[in-house]
Amino acid sequence: DTKHRALHHAASHPDLEEVLFTEDEIKQRVHALAGEIKQVYGPGEFTLVSLINGAVMFTADLMREIDNPVRLDCIRVKSYGTGTRSEGTPQVVASLTLDVANRDVLIIDDILDTGKTLALVCDLACKLKPASLRTCVLLDKKARREVRFEADFVGFEIPNKFVVGYGLDFAERYRNLPCIGVLKKELQTAPAP
Ligand code: 5GP
Ligand code: MG
Ligand code: MG
């Protein structure tokens, strides 16, 4: 109930040093973002491509705010291992199964950091000759960019801090937190898997 939820927000999570966005703030921004997306696509069909696992929650919430006919596919990219820093080159572990040739494609990711992941996935998608290709990220950590990349739709710009929750993990944990927060420094060392 509402009282329980309010308490939950106040307490946040013991492993977080700071909450950047509450569940409600995310919900409002996702709703507005869906409006921005509709403005660009109009009423027609498009294909959502979600980068899993990180973008699962964002994708699920965003697509429910979009009343266009949409198709959904996923790409699994491995990039971070268990640490908090990008380790070398991201790799596509499982690629598209839908045919995206001549389709309007919107790639969705949780966070844009160095830009390597989205640059890689956009290259891959581009080769499949979509009618159009755009990207949407919930978070943008501009200060960390290593390859030039701008997303077409951005939920929030954030400072250079390692964040978890709302799909984002540390060593596969914390994805289920409804808010997005900064993981405590002392917990940012790789635990047993
Ligand atoms: P990039 O290739 O842009 O450096 O990294 C993108 C991917 O790295 C994201 O899809 C996400 O999985 C991961 N990532 C980048 N920054 C963070 C962060 O602050 N927290 C978490 N949990 N993952 C991050
Ligand atoms: Mg990711
Ligand atoms: Mg991760």
From TrEMBL:
Its main location: cytoplasm. Keywords: Cytoplasm, Glycosyltransferase, Magnesium, Metal-binding, Nucleotide-binding, Purine salvage, Transferase. It is an enzyme of class 2 (transferase). Its EC number is 2.4.2.8. Belongs to the purine/pyrimidine phosphoribosyltransferase family. It comes from the Bacteria. It comes from Opitutus terrae (strain DSM 11246 / JCM 15787 / PB90-1). NCBIfam families: HGPRTase. The keyword Manganese does not apply. InterPro entries: HGPRT, Hxn_phspho_trans, PRTase-like, PRTase_dom. One of its GO terms (biological process) is hypoxanthine metabolic process. It is found in: Cytoplasm. The lineage of its organism: Bacteria, Pseudomonadati, Verrucomicrobiota, Opitutia, Opitutales. Pathway: Purine metabolism; IMP biosynthesis via salvage pathway; IMP from hypoxanthine: step 1/1. It catalyses: IMP + diphosphate = hypoxanthine + 5-phospho-alpha-D-ribose 1-diphosphate; GMP + diphosphate = guanine + 5-phospho-alpha-D-ribose 1-diphosphate. SUPFAM superfamilies: PRTase-like. Its cofactor is Mg(2+). GO terms for cellular component: cytosol. PANTHER family: HYPOXANTHINE PHOSPHORIBOSYLTRANSFERASE, HYPOXANTHINE-GUANINE PHOSPHORIBOSYLTRANSFERASE. This is Hypoxanthine phosphoribosyltransferase. Residues 25-170 form the Phosphoribosyltransferase domain. GO terms for molecular function: guanine phosphoribosyltransferase activity; hypoxanthine phosphoribosyltransferase activity; magnesium ion binding; nucleotide binding.
